[in-house]
Amino acid sequence: MAKVSRRSEAVDPFIVMDVMAAAAAKEAAGDTVIHLEVGQPSTPAPRGALAAAHAALDVDKIGYVAALGMPALRERIARHYREQYNAEVSPERVIVTTGSSGGFPLAFLASFDAGDRVALAAPGYPAYRNILSALHLEAVDLPTSLADRYQPTVAALEKVGPISGLIVASPSNPTGTMVTRGELTALSQWCDGHQVRLVSDEIYHGIVYEGEATSAVEVSEHAVVVNSFSKYFSMTGWRVGWLVVPEELVRPIERLTQNFFISVPTLSQYAALAAFECRDELDAHVARYKANRDLLMAGLPAAGLDRLTPAQGAFYIYADVSHLTNDSREFCKRMLQEAGVATTPGVDFDRARGAGTLRISFAGSMAEMEEAVRRLKAWRRG
Ligand SMILES: Cc1ncc(COP(=O)(O)O)c(C=O)c1O
Questions:
Q1: Is the CB of 99 inside a 6 Å radius of any atom of ligand 1?
Q2: pTM (2 d.p.)
Q3: Tell me: the pLDDT tens digits for 221-255?
Q4: So what CATH class is 63-278?
Q5: Which atom of ligand 1 is nearest to the CA of 124?
Q6: Which residue ranges make up each domain of the chain?
Q7: Nearest to 139 by CA among 316, 12, 329
């Protein structure tokens, strides 16, 4: 039999998918499940984006477009930096991608060579590590703690040995925590001083409750910014995102994306362009997320979940459950089976310490959050 590559066999599964499958099986058996495991908005694309997609279908053949993205969308994204961050970004540095997931391999391949070491916070979004490893790059964990809001620090970087890249996510998945402007500046200066490429995942910008999200474009000329229409813009299934890259990476990424993808789904680019004009609808989602967060932070302690990371942004609460279990996978399984509440075990995000944590997503409706708290309290009482 022909072989299966070692690099693909070495890639870990995304465990939340297993939770979703178990939740679906429970629902198929007639039970109701409250979904606190899903990492996506419970709402569709904003109305203006849907209207733009409908209109485009009538007038455009929806063929391939330029590999780096539709010029109008690249320009609109550049304007977004002026409007939201007061930062000048040339449209030439903006690259439209197939979700931020499509941006990562492009950014990593253009920035690093096989064998290079790339540092990232643990806990963190698992795909970083898995994409790096599939590309024969070494993911180097920076163990973080609540004291530094689970974010990388210059002190931690001083101890990791030689690296070629650093990934920072603020607000972070799974913790919802952020770096301050001062911290991001310090990290980017450290990277510049050590010829390290900073990759800033800003996919949860726009979903911020406390403090202010700084973009790496504001503090660094050399960083790669990764962003997406999936979260704030509520367009996960449209698979459209973007990169802002330094000039020297534009042409390398253009060559890569021409060959990998030809172009990003055209219909989605029309919809994404219109989504920028839908801020009222989108900001209403953020207000709901904030109310959900406050409801869970107030209600979960009575259900025994009282060691919670205060989420500054995104739609996740990271819970320390090490006083309740030493096997978060088993704990989540029992919570699903017995309480009908699905959450994601921390092992997805932190291999070393995730057996004692879980991630709770509050992207759903307020009624679902209320019901989750009610069920978990009843579960706790036994
Ligand atoms: C931190 C982070 N980055 C990137 C992604 C990928 O999202 P997408 O490919 O839909 O843009 C996710 C999805 O959950 C995420 O949480």
A1: yes
A2: 0.96
A3: 999 999 999 999 999 999 999 999 999 999 999 99
A4: alpha beta
A5: 1
A6: 6-44+280-381, 63-278
A7: 12
